[in-house]
Amino acid sequence: GDTDYQTFYDGQINTSSFEVGESGVVTGSLALVAEALTPGTAVIASQTDAAADTSTPLSAVNDVVRIWVDGVDSLCTVKSGGFEFSNNMQEDRAAGCEGATYANGDITLSGALSARLPIDASTLWRDKYLAGTKVGLAFELSHGGGEYTIIEVPQSVITEHEIADGSSVVANSEMTYTAEEDSRGFTAVIYRN
């Protein structure tokens, strides 16, 4: 037929992102780098096309079970959040060689968070920012049927913080954060049952 196969191998994740908005669909992305491309466009023996994905997109309203801040369930207090993660892959090419070799650089993770400011804790996030307090974050997502994913950023520092001015009676903390490696050596962890 008219099917062309371009088969890359020795691929590695370079960057990824994750976002839970106030509504809509939970989103994420991955960007890969590959060390080599198989010559030609013919199918490789035993290669098959993957079945179409039939999973249901996750809703930011219905499928976010909990958002944890320092181990405390903060669902409906944290309004939205997400992050960008990078392995900072460094490419190394050589004359006479097709493809490239990649090495991990310093892993980085930074993100943004929006949180409600209840009247009894209106300086909570600002105080964490000013004190340089380490903050642990985790997002628990339900896939239905007892299947869950937890995405944890165990240790981060708020790098910018703002309480937006406006005529509204609703106040929110808007902030950015940068993750640090925790005592286990992790910047981010994904758990799935």
Q: Spell out the helices and strands N to C.
A: EEEEEEEEHEEEE
Helix count? 1
Overall spatial form:
globular
Model regions low in confidence, pLDDT < 50 over at least 5 residues: none
Q: How many β-strands, per DSSP?
A: 12
| Average pLDDT reading | 90
Structural class: mainly beta
Major sheet description: 10 strands, antiparallel
Give the distance, in angstroms, between the N- and C-terminal Cα atoms. 40 Å
Approximate helicity band? under 10%
Work out the radius of gyration.
Answer: 21 Å
Strand content: over 45%
Could you explain how this protein is built, in words?
It contains one helix and twelve strands. It has 193 residues and is mainly beta.
Descriptive tags:
193 residues, two-stranded antiparallel sheet, mainly beta
Report a brief summary of the structure.
The chain is 4% helix and 50% strand.
What is the strand and helix layout of this fold?
Elements: E1 8-20, E2 27-37, E3 64-69, E4 72-73, E5 78-86, E6 90-92, E7 101-103, E8 108-116, H1 124-131, E9 134-144, E10 147-163, E11 172-179, E12 189-192
Antiparallel strand pairs: 1-2, 1-5, 3-4, 3-9, 5-8, 6-7, 8-11, 9-10, 10-11, 10-12
